[in-house]
Specification:
The structure holds 2 protein chains of 2 kinds. Chain A contains 9 helices and no strands. The longest helix of chain A has about 35 residues. The two termini of chain A are about 20 Å apart. The longest helix of chain B is centred in the first third of the chain and has 35 residues. The chains are: A mainly alpha, B mainly alpha. Chains A and B meet through helix 1, helix 2, helix 5, helix 6 and helix 7 of A and helix 1, helix 2, helix 5, helix 6 and helix 7 of B.
Chain lengths: ~180, ~180
Amino acid sequence: MEDFDSDILLPITGLISSSAILWILVALAAIFAWSRRDGAHIRGFQIACGHTWRILPRVPVAILAAGFIAAMLPDEITGIWLGTESGIVGIILASVVGAFVPSGPIVAFPIVIALDRAGAGMPQLIAFLTAWEVYALHRILIWELPLMSPGFVYRRLAGAAIVPPLAGIFSALITGAPLY
Amino acid sequence: MGESSESGKQGFFDRPFVFLIAVSLAAGLACYLVMGEVVFGQVLYSEGRLLIDVIPRIAAATLLAGFLQAMVSRDMVTKWIGTESGWRGLFIGTVAGVVMPGGPITTFPLVVAFYGAGADMGALVAFLVSWSILGFNRVIVWELPFLGQDFVFVRLAASLLLPIAAGLIARQLPPLERPSDPGKG
């Protein structure tokens, strides 16, 4: 468990096997959708094409941007503030910073990759990602406030406030990373 | 299909994409000038390799998410979270959030309508938090290809009970006045 988060992103063998698992799941889902005889397999394919059309051109650009920024980020600073050893302080810091990422997944995920390369720990990255998912500043402003009432948004945010740091703390407990 | 892929309807070069391209070019130029040619080349090489790994996985992931989305009916999710409360409501809200297809345009108004119809605030908050941190679409399409199964496993295990906690907290807050007609907002 010690080296669990030492290089979570590029263990090539792991990538290949999980890729195979993904394609097996795709085949199973396709067969299951087709066997329903209600056109679900065609609808599913159309939904996927719509997503792919949007995602595919953006991913290379986002990954390159994250790579360039990660190369310029001083590793020592990221390591001290968000590294595995930063413990609960790093988890809380990551929870706050992640809440202010003002963009969708195409930008947010490369940022997580960049932080990982620059030495952030897994519990800290999980707190960061969870904070972005739960707060998603752009989503609150563009969708949530107009579509729901402020009273609703306030109750959701108040309930969700503990979620990112707890996700980080539980992750540290699971991986055996230090909390302080 | 239109209702389920609201984000897919925008143009190819929309403003966020243009912004992303500008950031990428600026970061590349800065990296070249500050860190030098060697580091710049290393970044191009390692990101290229990452892309070769990630692109087929994204293709598989979007297909899987598409098929699942086509099979989960919104009516089913609607029936679950519309009425339940108590511990059962929190639990069902969490499960419904995991399988809820679609983006914010369909989800947020649905929640307001449920509240107007008498649903429990705790269950609805559990549903919304679950939808944002455990929703299968984002986990499959983004998290698995980019971050790998170890990361996904740890994060999901650590987050499984958190929507319930969020719902419990939201229940402690003073109740919100119920909108009689969700359409009026």
